[in-house]
Amino acid sequence: MRIPIVALFALDLAATSRFAWAEDIDGSSSLTIDSDPTVSDHPSPWDVGGPLNIGVTAGSGAKLTIQNGGEAFVASYLYVASGDDASGSVDAHNGNALADTGDVGVSGGRLLITDNETVGDTALTGGSLEIATGATLFADSFMLRDGAVTGGTLAGSSYILENGSISATLTGPGALTTIGSGTVMLTGTIAAGNSPGTLTIDGDLDLTFASVMDFELGSPSSAAGVDSDLIRLWLNFSDFSLSRDRRTCNA
After folding, report:
1. What's the chain's Rg over C-alpha atoms?
2. CA-wise closest residue to 103 among 61, 146, 60, 156
3. In this structure, how many other beta carbons lie within 10 angstroms of the beta carbon of residue 118?
4. Taking the C-alpha atoms of 131, 135, 136 and 137 in order, what is their torsion angle to the nearest 10 degrees?
5. Looking at residue 27, what is its pLDDT?
6. For the residues of 8-73, what is the DSSP string, one character each?
7. Which of 112, 48, 102, 107 lies closest to 77, judged by CA?
8. Residue 35, CA distances (Å) to 12, 68, 89 in order
9. Terminus-to-terminus CA distance in the chain, angstroms?
10. N or C: which terminus of the chain has fewer CB atoms within 10 Å of its end residue's CB?
11. With bands split at pLDDT 50, 70 and 90, how would you rate the model's confidence at 184?
């Protein structure tokens, strides 16, 4: 059973309304955005001019589902939370479901991306960011303070990592910086730059036997960072494997 969402401000939630200044999806509420108006709880595209908060107040199962070509545009901030008495999740089941969405924060909740999406600055301070295999989440910048990133590809302009685990592919042209005294365990792939490009790693990063450094290599005389991938290192490696054309070098 779906329970009506609770608005932060006075909203027009009539069937013809497509815009809201800000929203809360709380308790055991759920909201589905679908291109089919007979299925959708709100007309698509759904424009939220202010923040959209999911799972902030008490209750379990607060959920936003975007499917079948539905779209939700959150102009300022999408926040997915979870705590002792609350839990929230967002399932984006088609590409462009979060088009034009601003910054994203996940704190104990879950954000599921099943197709390519582009968002603003993204922070994971607990909970999970799940990216389906073959899908890419493009973010202006990405911060991992705690939690888990799994699945496909996360393409950030820069990364700040403090604590948590990553079993996805990280790519992008900026810096990857580790901070604090926590541990970031990478069992996924680091792919420098954007075909090809440069990635700067500043800090200690724990890599395991399952970690992969994926390099795109040009000719020996080519320019690093232009014709071949370049990773600038300011860190201590634990152990890692570099794979190319079925050949493996352990360092």
Report:
1. 20
2. 156
3. 16
4. -40
5. 65
6. SS----STT--EES-EEE-TT-EEEEESSTTT-SS-SSEEESS-EEES-SSEEEEEEEEETT--EE
7. 102
8. 20, 6, 20
9. 55
10. N
11. confident
How does pLDDT run across 95-136, given as a tens digit for each residue? Answer: 888 877 889 999 988 999 999 999 999 999 999 999 999 999
Q: Select from 103, 95, 86, 30 the least CA-distant residue to 68.
A: 95
Instruction: Determine the 3-state secondary structure of 102 from DSSP.
Output: coil
User: What single DSSP character describes residue 239?
Assistant: -
C-alpha distances (whole Å) from 129 to each of 29, 46, 115, 136, 190 are 21, 23, 13, 12, 17
What mean pLDDT is predicted for residues 168-187?
83
Q: Is 54 within 8 Å of 63 (Cβ atoms)?
A: yes
Maximum distance among all alpha carbons in the chain?
A: 64
List the structure tokens of 76. Answer: 């300022």
**How many whole angstroms separate alpha carbon 160 and alpha carbon 164?**
12
Write out the two tokens for 225. Answer: 């960072």
Tokens of 190: 């680091």
| Confidence at 15, pLDDT banded by 50, 70, 90 | very low
Residue recorded with tokens 């509420």: 29
> Buried b / exposed e across 88-106, counting CB within 10 Å, b at 16+?
bbbbbbbbbbbeebbbbbb
Average pLDDT of the chain is: 78
Beta-carbon contacts of residue 159 (< 8 Å; ≥ 6 apart): 141, 142, 143, 144, 170, 172, 174, 175, 176, 177
d(CA 129, CA 146): 11
